[in-house]
Amino acid sequence: MITNVAVQAAGPLSRTLSIELDRPGLVSVVYGTGSGTQLQVASSQALTEHQVLLTRLRANSRYVFEVRTEADRDTNEFLTDSLPDDLTAIKFTATGVPSDPLTLLELVQIFDVPDTFSGVVIVDRDGEIVWYHRAQRAVTGTTRLSNGNFVFLDLDIGLLEVTPAGRVVSTLSQEPDGRTLHHDVVTAPNGAVLFLANDRQVVDDTLIAGEAIWEWVPETDAQRKLWSSFDHLSARSDRGPRYSTTDWLHANSLSISPRGNIIVSLHRLNQIISIAPDYGTLEWRLGGTNATIQVPDDDRFSGQHSAAEVSPGRILLFDNGLERSEPFSRALEWEMTGTSARIVWEFRPSPDNWSRAVSSVRRLASGNSFIGFGMSEGLGGSTGPIEVYEVTPIGDVVWHLVVQEGLQLMYRATPLSDIAGEASIN
Predict the structure, then answer these.
(1) 282-302 residue pLDDT tens
(2) Which DSSP state fits 361?
(3) Model pTM greater than 0.90?
(4) Domain 2-79 maps to which CATH number in 3.30.420.140, 3.10.100.10, 3.30.70.1400, 2.60.40.10?
(5) Are 272 and 307 in contact (CB under 8 A)?
(6) Cβ atoms 362, 306 nearer than 8 A
(7) CATH for 85-424?
(8) What is the DSSP code string of 306-334?
(9) N or C: which end of the chain has fewer CB within 10 A?
(10) Comparing C-alpha atoms, which of 160, 77, 179, 79 is closest to residue 120?
């Protein structure tokens, strides 16, 4: 029998139910607003006291929930809070139905504008905000641990492990006079977190800022450097058209392929590289400066982001088209054969959208692709708008999210199946 149910505020747009039973048992909770999708979350252990987190809640809404045990039911309700003004100012519209019910957006206000939001938001398929985490400055990388917690790379703070209830449980701090974390973070198969950081060395009497890949284990705070660009690339000869001593390569994405090789996008070289699973060698360099795998001149990518090996020898990337004479951005899939490569898939929206920087593309298990154009109209000459597409392999749009106002820049868009294990039941 259910003896007591108490509702408590948790993090933004979430509630914790404290549930007491007269004997150990399993519980499940079904909740919703009475219209639209109902959600369910269930316990995995038979206990007398349960703490159940309810997430994916919309603001300013009345939720009815039912606690269920094998032999009992208890129904109650609660009201959710309003969004803060800086989030209310961001207007989304959405059309269609995505494969996953949620989308995580890394949002950045890059100018010193009062009362504007920077951080992470999660929106549902209708473009309603259902979770958020405020950054000190900007989040430029997100991954998820096997325990369900998120890891965010906050440029001012460092790495933050954040629970679905919004609580920070571990931190790896920035080192302003040494290692500077930036741009991306990914979870390795062994559960450790890999991240990009600047690596500095003196070359010909000049201090050069290159790149390194580090590993962090949140549970123990163990950390080690796995790879340095200075061991595999030359700061003298591997120089792209936008070379700078303070940012030689500008690595802007990091991903792990199924066989364990590491894919890194080097923005300033207009190049994607593959690092061997043991970090000992470079396997290949696709496009750009001193490439080992050439791309046709007419198909060159530049200023690219979010590169990943989606199947053996196939690389998916977001081509910003930074150096293209005709300004437009697109998602590309390359097939590599020997020392050459060709485009085997492309998505270019209509009308064109030129995103001078940031942006992303993801490949879903269904074969669909999830593409985010991240810069607003006029920012750095970009055409805008900030928008996200889910498209089929033949380019049909199944979902489209548009930021109508209130935002300058979206770093990446990532589909999610859940926030805290909740599932749709209708």
Answers:
(1) 999 999 999 999 999 999 999
(2) E
(3) yes
(4) 2.60.40.10
(5) yes
(6) yes
(7) 2.120.10.80
(8) EEEEEETTEEEEEE--TT-SS---EEEEE
(9) C
(10) 160
